[in-house]
Specification:
It is a single chain. This protein is 56% helix and 12% strand. Strands 1-9-8-7-6-5-2-3-4 form a nine-stranded mixed beta sheet. Helix 3 crosses helix 4 and helix 8 runs antiparallel to helix 13. It is globular, with a radius of gyration of 22 Å.
């Protein structure tokens, strides 16, 4: 059983007299900065000068600096820019200011675990990884609830790395819900596997395969969309609320019987074998090497796949049908976040 921490285990004194520099004011960055600020922590934010995020942070009343300035000013530096730009930002702008006794923090262990970032030995290296998107981290903080998080310590130069990470989690609001202890390796590898095999890769392909099977058999694309994509949220919400058992309790007996008898024919032994192969590629570093090289070579394959995915039939039909649903929050189509890409190259 993993060790868990709650509010009684956090002490803001470990951040007293220290400045926390939040590197990146995106989804997670804005929540971290605002929650810590509202908890009484001294916070500065780093962003690219002239970027929309710089203006948003200033409008929120935060002190905004360039990344080198923030790294110099901060005793605790939390890196919240995307994985594929972290190493460039760290090596260029942060590393020169990582003096003895400082704390380097992450919300995901990718770059430390796969040795793209090599911190000096005389600093603490830790992780607080909230298990929710940034907007929920902020919303639930305001409601006084908080979201669960993971905590890990990779390097404990001061002897207080865990205590300081838990103080950060307290200020973020996560200790209200509970924080589970892990390692950089476990968090990174399990997170990548979940994304690839289940949450993103697995779910996306299952949706698309179901949609295309119905359409190929002559069923209307609109009907296929509702049955294979739209209603998925209803099922996922039930699972999140009470696990698989609650979902099965909530659906019809017909659906439950189909779950038990047909589900294993979709996710079968061949599927499980492929899952094990995907996990081994993550554990060996093969996936990390592939993804790092993709970014170094200009992201040509990645961007081509992104563009092709936008034009898949299930997406084309979905764009039309969502116009019938005013209750859905409208989402504009987003490409490569240019300010993030530009920040990595400067």
């Amino acid at each position: 059983m993993s060790k868990r921490y709650y509010e009684a285990n956090g002490n803001l004194d470990y951040l007293k007299g220290r400045t926390v520099a939040i590197v990146g004011y995106g989804s997670q960055g804005h929540a971290h900065a605002l929650n810590l600020r509202d908890s009484g922590v001294d916070v500065v934010v780093s962003e690219a000068p002239g970027s929309p995020s710089w203006a948003k942070a200033e409008a929120a009343g935060l002190k905004v600096m360039t990344t080198p300035e923030a790294a110099k000013a901060g005793n605790v530096i939390m890196i919240l820019v995307p994985d594929h730009v972290q190493a460039a930002v760290y090596n260029r702008d942060i590393a020169p200011h990582m003096t003895a006794g400082k704390t380097l923090m992450f919300a995901h262990g990718f770059n430390v675990h796969f040795k793209q970032i090599a911190p000096p030995p005389d600093i603490d290296v830790s992780m607080i990884a909230p298990k929710a998107p940034g907007h929920r981290v902020r919303e639930l903080f305001i409601e006084g609830v908080g979201v669960p998080a993971l905590v890990a310590v990779e390097q404990n130069a001061t002897g207080e790395a865990l205590e300081r990470a838990l103080a950060y989690a307290l200020a973020l609001g996560c200790l209200k819900a509970g924080v589970i202890e892990t390692t950089f390796r476990e968090e990174t590898e399990s997170d990548l596997f979940g994304e690839q095999a289940v949450l993103c890769g697995g779910a996306s392909e299952l949706i698309r395969a179901g949609f295309e099977t119905l359409v190929a058999a002559g069923y209307a694309p609109e009907i296929a969309y509702f049955e294979c994509l739209h209603e998925l949220k209803l099922i996922v919400d039930l699972i999140q609320e009470g696990g698989l058992a609650y979902m099965r309790f909530s659906v019809s007996d017909t659906a439950e019987y189909g779950d038990y008898t047909r589900g294993p024919r979709i996710v079968n032994q061949q599927t499980r074998a492929e899952m094990r192969k995907i996990l081994s590629e993550i554990q060996s570093g093969a996936f990390a090497k592939e993804w790092i090289e993709e970014n170094r070579s200009g992201r040509k394959n990645f961007l081509a796949m992104r563009e092709a995915a936008r034009h898949q039939p299930v997406e084309e039909v979905g764009r039309e049908l969502r116009e019938m649903m005013p209750f859905l929050k409208k989402k504009k189509e987003v490409g490569v976040p240019q300010d993030v890409e530009a920040a990595a190259k400067k």
